[in-house]
Design a protein that fits this description.
This protein is an alpha+beta fold and about 400 residues long. The protein is built from eleven helices and 16 strands. Helix 1 packs across helix 4, helix 6 packs antiparallel against helix 7 and helix 7 crosses helix 10.
Length: about 400
C-alpha cells in the first residue's frame, strides 16, 4: 500500500530562515516559468512551451543565479516545474470539457507553501534509525532538521515534501510497500448517516455529537478578522502590527483545522475497530454547499426574487464545519489499512424511505429528528432510519442476487 506520514519539524532560527528562502526561490522559479509560457503564447505566434523545454533551461538558470537558484536541489526545482505543467494540463482539460477553465495564476507569498523532493536521497534524505532517539531530515541548502516523529514509518520512503502552515513547518513522507495492519474480525456491520444536528448516527442507534469547531471559535475569529480589516488592503509595505494580525487569523484557522482532523481520525478509528463492514452515503459535498442561483424578478427592472440564500448559507457553513468529505476519506484509508470494507451507497431518499414497509414520501420526514411513515405508521428517529436504510442498501449492493 501507499501511505503518507506527516511530522512536525523543529528547525533552528537559521534553518527557519533558510526554509523561507527555499520557498521564496521556488516560488520565483514557478512564476518565472509561468511568465515564459504566457509570453511565448502571446508574442511568438501562440507557441506552447512544454515542461521539457523549461527543465532543459534549469542548468543555465542555476549557473546564472547561483545564490538563489543554484543552492537548491535540482530535482526539487524540476518538481516545481512539473507542478506548473500539471496546472496547465488541468486548464486545457477543463477548456476541452467546456468547464470553467481557471488559467494558472502567479503565486503570491501566501499561496506557495510546499516544496517537493521527488526521490529520497537526491537533494533530501530521511534519517531515521531505531537506535537514535532524534530523527532528522536532511535538505540540500538547509541542513539536518530535527523531526518530531510521533509514530513509526513503515515501508520505503519515496518522496519528501516540506510544507509551511502558518508559522509551523512540516515534512510529509510518501512511501510504498507499507504492510497492512489487519485488525481481528468482529462480525459487526454498520450503516452511518451523516448529519448536522449529529455528526453521524449508526444503524445501531448510536449518535456521535457534532463538535462544531468553527462555530465554537466564530466569535474569536470574527474579532481577529475585524481587527485585520482595519488595516489598508493595498499598501507597499506591511507593518509589524498588520503581519501580527494576519498571523493571528491564520493561527485560529489552523487550530480549527487541527481540531477537526483529530476528531475525524478518532471517530473513524472507533468505527473501524468495532465493525468489519461500514456503509455510508455517497455524498456530493460540493453540490450540497453550492450557493442558490439568483431568481430575477420578471416584474421589476434588475430586481430579484427571494431565493433562500441566507438560510442556505447557514446550512453550508454547518456542512463545511462538519467536514464530511475529509472524514469519509480518512475512514476509507483506515479501512484499507485495517482490512475492513467500506461501502458507499446512493444517498437519495435514505431519510424518506420507511425501513419497515419501503414506502417513500417526503411527508415521512416530519421534523429534523422525527420520522413517521404515512403508509404504515412506523415511527423512529430520522437519522437512525437513514442509517438503517444505508445499511440495507449496502446489503443489496454486496448481495445483488439476494
Amino acid at each position: 500500500m501507499i501511505r503518507a506520514y506527516k511530522f512536525l519539524l523543529r528547525p533552528t532560527v537559521r534553518q527557519t530562515a533558510a526554509l523561507g528562502e527555499m520557498l521564496r526561490d521556488h516560488r520565483s522559479l514557478y512564476n518565472g516559468a509561468l511568465q515564459e509560457r504566457r509570453d511565448a503564447y502571446r508574442h511568438a505566434s501562440k507557441t506552447s512551451v512544454k515542461y521539457g523545454d523549461q527543465s532543459a533551461q534549469l542548468k543555465e538558470i542555476r549557473a546564472f543565479d547561483p545564490e538563489r537558484q543554484g543552492r537548491w536541489s535540482f530535482p526539487s526545482q524540476q518538481a516545481t516545474l512539473r507542478r506548473l505543467d500539471r496546472a496547465f494540463a488541468a486548464f486545457f482539460r477543463r477548456v476541452k470539457a467546456g468547464q470553467t477553465p481557471g488559467y494558472p495564476r502567479f503565486k503570491g507569498v501566501g499561496h506557495f507553501d510546499t516544496v517537493v523532493f521527488p526521490k529520497n536521497g537526491d537533494g533530501c534524505r530521511w534519517d531515521s534509525t531505531p537506535h537514535d532517539p532524534v530523527t532528522r531530515v536532511r535538505l540540500q541548502g538547509v541542513g539536518h532538521i530535527r523531526v518530531h516523529q510521533h509514530r513509526p514509518v513503515h515501508g520505503r520512503v519515496k518522496t519528501i515534501s516540506v510544507k509551511r502552515e502558518g508559522n509551523r513547518w512540516y515534512v510529509v513522507l510518501a512511501g510504498d510497500e507499507v504492510p497492512a495492519e489487519e485488525l481481528p474480525p468482529t462480525g459487526a456491520v454498520a450503516g452511518i448517516d451523516m448529519g448536522v444536528a449529529h455528526f453521524l448516527t449508526t444503524s445501531d442507534g448510536e449518535h456521535v455529537a457534532n463538535p462544531r469547531f468553527f462555530q465554537a471559535a466564530a466569535e474569536e475569529l470574527a474579532e481577529a478578522q475585524r481587527h485585520l480589516a482595519t488595516f489598508p488592503k493595498r499598501t507597499k509595505r506591511r507593518t509589524k502590527a498588520h503581519r501580527a494580525a494576519a498571523r493571528k487569523v491564520a493561527r485560529l484557522h489552523a487550530r480549527i483545522r487541527r481540531q477537526r482532523a483529530d476528531f475525524h481520525h478518532k471517530t473513524a478509528r472507533a468505527l473501524i475497530t468495532d465493525h468489519d463492514v461500514i456503509a455510508h452515503e455517497r455524498l456530493n459535498t460540493a453540490g450540497m454547499t453550492r450557493t442558490p442561483m439568483a431568481k430575477p424578478d420578471p416584474a421589476g427592472d434588475g430586481a430579484f426574487l427571494p431565493n433562500g440564500a441566507a438560510a442556505k448559507a447557514g446550512l453550508n457553513r454547518s456542512i463545511l464545519d462538519a467536514g464530511w468529505a475529509q472524514f469519509l476519506g480518512i475512514l476509507a484509508n483506515k479501512a484499507e489499512s485495517a482490512g475492513r470494507l467500506v461501502v458507499p451507497v446512493d444517498a437519495r431518499n435514505t431519510s424518506r424511505t420507511c425501513p419497515d414497509c419501503g414506502h417513500v414520501a417526503r411527508e415521512n420526514r416530519v421534523t429534523q429528528e422525527m420520522f413517521q411513515c404515512t403508509a404504515c405508521g412506523f415511527a423512529a428517529n430520522a437519522d437512525h432510519v437513514g442509517a438503517t436504510n444505508v445499511l440495507n442498501r449496502a446489503g443489496l449492493a454486496l448481495c445483488p442476487a439476494a
